[in-house]
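Fold it.
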Amino acid sequence: MAGRRAPRSLKTELQIRFLIVGSAFLVIATALLYQNGQAALRRQILASATTAAETAASLIAVEDHSAIRSPSDMNSSSFRNLVTDLGALRRANPSIYHLFTLAPVGNLGSWGLIVDLGGTGPMPKSGPGRAGRLPIGSPPPPGIPRALIQEAMQGTVARVLDLNDPDRARVVAVAPIRGTGGSSVGLVAVEMSVASLAAEARLLWYVSIGVFLLGLVASVLASNFVSRWVTRPIEDLLAAVEEISKGHLNTRVKIADAENELGALGMAFNHMAESLESGQARSNAQQARLRDLHRVGSEAAATLDLARMLEVSASGLRAVCGGEEAYAGVSVRQDPSIRLWARSGPGQVDLDDADTPIERLFRVLGAETRLLSRAEFDVAGLGWLASRPGEYALAAPLRVSDE
């Protein structure tokens, strides 16, 4: 039909199915790899920020921190001690771009800055710049969620904020400053850059893409190998079927592994081909015999000489039936005995004394063809065959007009 698309081969179908399954598996595996890697990176940077905040809280002397509440305290030794200790921590960890402490200030107990080491980190566009230090008593930077400050009173908390905004992305960790009785008297806030997280996330993305591409190439190669492994025996079988259909019955398929279904199919095909070949051989032999019979009949019908007709008949019977010797005899002019015989076989035999009474032969054979044993030769009037080789004789009556 015009415009009809040609059907795909089994090999192509297997390749497509393997690629679909393999690609789906690779997509899922790559997505899981990327997500797990990102989660591990987030845990790592949160742990780093948490450690920095708790380290800063441990460096703060509660007495010094409690003595600072107004801008005039910036010249005190307590303030200088805190700046010195926290500055050393910030220099030891370059990823910290903002470090400050908080404490309740004023009569209402609102949170205010105590020590601000300044920084250059991102700020909300509406907020003040982060180039210098905020004065003592200033409210917390607007970039620090108030809920995070409340949670930090119970223990250290850390969050990755604004990760989708490259200009503001950061990790914030807030740790409580514990007094003598273990109660929280203030907080330490640490803001750290997530540049390392972004860089490692990009590297993880590239690695994930590379793993996906390598897996895709391996999937293509595997699909080609498996499809060829499955379809090659089938292609060999189809080629053998075409050869059989052309009459080449000696065609056989090679069986690489007889233990699987394809090997069993190949063995069954070879058995079928052997049966067809042997059947054709038998058919050819039968046709050859029919041709020989036709030739014998034609030769016998072409002569009017009785002796010659018997010679042709004996020769044809030996060719068709096989055997070492073949004899054809006939009675002449209602003679009760068969005296005229012709023979086909190696060597010479004197048939002048070959006399077979018809009545004895009829009593043994009747109207049927029989295989006579050597003990039955004399009973059938064929005792003169006793000197011939062979243990059996195939005897058939030739009847004309029921005689």
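Confidence is low (pLDDT under 50) at residues 123-131.
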